[in-house]
Every structure is written in C-alpha cells, then in structure tokens.
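During the reporting period the student researcher (J.K.) took over the structure-prediction task from the postdoctoral fellow and processed the backlog of single-chain submissions. One of the processed entries is reproduced below for the supervisory committee.
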Amino acid sequence: MVKYLGSKRLLLPAIVETVRALGDVQSVVDVFSGTSRVGHALKREGFQVLANDHNAYAAALARCYVEADAEAVSAQAAALLAELNELPGEPGYFTATFCERSRYFQPKNGARVDAIRADIARRRLPAALEAVLLVSLMEAADRVDSTTGVQMAYLKQWASRSERDLTLRLPELLPRAAAGAGRATQLDALEAVQTTPADLVYLDPPYNQHSYLGNYHIWETLVRWDAPETYGVAQKRVDCRERRSTFNSRREIGASLAAVVRAVQARYLLVSFSNEGFLTREALEALLSERGEVTVVEHDFKRYVGAQIGIHNPAGEKVGTVGHLRNKEYLFLVRVAR
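J.K. obtained the following structure tokens:
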C-alpha cells in the first residue's frame, strides 16, 4: 500500500484483536478509511467491512481492498494490467504538472502514468475493476516517487527509487469475507454513521492540522483525472484551499467528532487517536463516556517517516529540527449503552 501519514500498520494487530475478542461482531463501518489498511485486515479476518472516506483516492482504495473480491476480479484485472504495462509513455497533464513544473516523478514515469491513466478512462470499466487498476497505478507511482512520504514537497535531489521504471502489480485482493460482501462509500463522516448500520463503528479521524487531501493531492488528481488548476511549488489542486475538513481545525474538531459519536447506532465504537491530536485523552474519554463504558489502551510508537527524516522546505532542504521522535496511539473501546 502507499506510504501514508497516520497509517495504522503497526496498530493493526491490536485493532484486529480488539474486534475479534468482542465475539459478537460481524460487520464493521470504517468511517475514515484512508488507505483501507484497517478495512483490508478486518476483511481478511472474515468481517463484513463497510469503508467510507470523502476523498476520491481513498474511496478508490476502499473499492479495491474492501469492495472488490479476488474471485470476481483478479483474473480480468491481471490480464488488463499486463496490457497496460506494455503501453509506451505519452506525456500529458500529469507529466507537465508533477514532473516538469515540480519534481515528484521522473518524466519517463510521468509519461507512463499519463498513458496508462488515459487508457483506463477510455475503457469505462465497472467501478470495482477500475478501482483495482487505479490502485495498481497509484501504488506503482508511489514506488518511484521522490518525496519524504507526503506530497507537500519533493526532494531537492532525485531519490534513487525514482530512477526505476514504473511497473504495475496486481494489488493484494482478498476473497469475499465470510460475514458478507464489503462496500465502499464516499460520504461525509456524519452521514456515513447515520446511514450505514453495523455491529461496530471504527473511527480514525484526522486529528491535527495535517490535511490528507493536501498531503496526497497527486493521488486525488490521479483518481479524479480532472486536470485541475494548481498553485505553489507543490502544485496542489486549487480545491485544497476550499475542501477543508473541520477535523483539521483545533476550534472545530471537538464539535464535529461529538456529532459523529452521538450519531453512532452500533453496539460498539472503537476510536483510534494520537497524543499529537487537538483533543486530549481526557477530553476524548469524557466525550465517549456519554455513550457507554470506555476502555483505553495506550501504544508507544516511532513517529511517521517524515518526522524521522526531519523538516524540509518545498525545495527539499532541511530547515528545522523535529521536537520528538515517538508518539502515543490510543485505542478507545466503547460498549455503547445509550
């Protein structure tokens, strides 16, 4: 899966074990699905997963890793990926924006992205199958990028991986879960919990000022394929200025999260949060206790890869010192009583 700020890779075993230990959970709603790493892991365990995220790239990841079943799409996807791997590069918007006006990818790989993405668009494939191809292309581009892991900046000198040739691979698709078919949606978080019934709701909201759209704007453009106007050295989509989440606001996150928590209709609520977030552990416990008994487990981890590398300006030059290299991740389990 793509390099991702806030990835729950290290926390996955604890999340899966928490859900499994409850014993009476069949279905899970992942309201802020991101890369769908959590949804993918829960699907592997046999749970029915309903993955939601308001960003287009995240919805594509969910359709691939949660909604698409291996037995239904693997063979056709593999054949199509073999065809797409043979396409020569054809420079277009992607190359001009992300390889010439900025330096995220080598032009040879940008031209391949342009050619492959245009071909996928022309085929007008069923949504799940198209998502598998788009995720394959996203992950292929991620393997040859020249960043520190986010798309706020690119490196001053080309990363060695950027010299490699872009190659598509079949994503790790799973068979349909024993508890039922998964589904991907692209709704506002509050609407998702109000309209998607399940035994357990999993919340992993944005928790500080870092916008996922701003950090992964290239993937949003790759999936939408809408050739937006861009701005700044990072060549961000102009709608990064407009599509702001209240969860990225210190002033608004409390009310927004409270509205989602109070709308939950499931028997269980599992919340992942960090001590780097705008809300304290005590504030979250107070909010969640409105819905029932709360259990909290604390995990200590290294911070995301960008923090390990350091603070850089848009030209890739190191400009500051990171204050700390470890953080605490919390898992709050609520047995909903009211």
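The committee noted the following: The domain at 12-336 is CATH 3.40.50.150 (Rossmann fold).
J.K. will present the remaining backlog at the next meeting.
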